[in-house]
Design brief:
Strand content: 5-15%
Order of helices and strands: HEHHHHHHE
Strand order of the largest sheet: 1-2
Largest sheet: 2 strands, antiparallel
Radius of gyration: 22 Å
Structural class: mainly alpha
Shape: globular
Number of domains: 1
Helix content: over 70%
């Protein structure tokens, strides 16, 4: 009887995932922001002659509108109100907005900080991969070669980034950010066009 009661409680408290129709205003918002993200990111990629600071400013604007889209979805969409990740997504959207404003206000300082942070992260990642490839147990020969090769490449790139932050580092950062924001834009257009989203609901007792 006790196990039966526990089973009933589990069914009543479990989170159910269901596919629901996205509101029209949300679809328009997602598609519009997706198009803007692709256009601006593509402009930065297709016109390498623009100055680095202009490219960083453009990408910070894209990051700003992406953060606004994330907060709007979590606050105004009726299907996300019971989601446990709602406040986490709102926090990440607010963080993206704050970070984009920081970049627009202090472009040089923010860019250099990102470059050095990414450079050292890439350096430590390369060292970790080499150690794994050399001393890891149960790894095939080709896996060892691949890990060591990627580790060496990561260290070389990180060295170039740290040694030449305003030359190699900034341009690499701009390309990575442009590609990432373009992919996000494509994703938003796809979701908005489909007009469906996964909602988390709790069954009524």
């Amino acid at each position: 009887m006790a196990s039966h009661g526990f089973y009933i409680w589990l069914l009543n408290s479990a989170i159910v995932l269901q596919i629901v129709k996205t509101p029209a205003w949300l679809r328009v918002l997602q598609i519009s922001i997706g198009v803007i993200s692709i256009i601006l990111s593509g402009y930065v990629l297709l016109y390498p002659g623009i100055t680095v600071l202009v490219a960083v400013q453009i990408l910070s604007i894209v990051l700003l509108i992406v953060g606004i889209e994330r907060i709007a979805i979590e606050i105004f969409s009726p299907y996300h109100r019971k989601s446990s990740s709602r406040f986490s997504n709102i926090g990440l959207g607010a963080l993206a907005i704050a970070f984009s404003i920081l970049i627009m206000a202090f472009p040089i300082f923010s860019t250099l900080f990102l470059i050095f942070l990414g450079g050292f992260a890439l350096l430590f990642n390369g060292i970790a991969r080499i150690i794994h490839g050399v001393g890891g147990q149960g790894i095939t020969r080709w896996s060892r070669v691949f890990l060591i090769g990627v580790g060496i490449l990561s260290i070389v790139i990180s060295g170039l980034v740290i040694a030449h932050p305003m030359g190699f580092g900034v341009r690499l950062l701009v390309v990575i950010m442009s590609l990432a924001l373009m992919i996000i834009g494509i994703e938003m257009i796809a979701i908005g066009t489909a007009g469906r989203q996964i909602a988390r609901t709790t069954p009524q007792k």
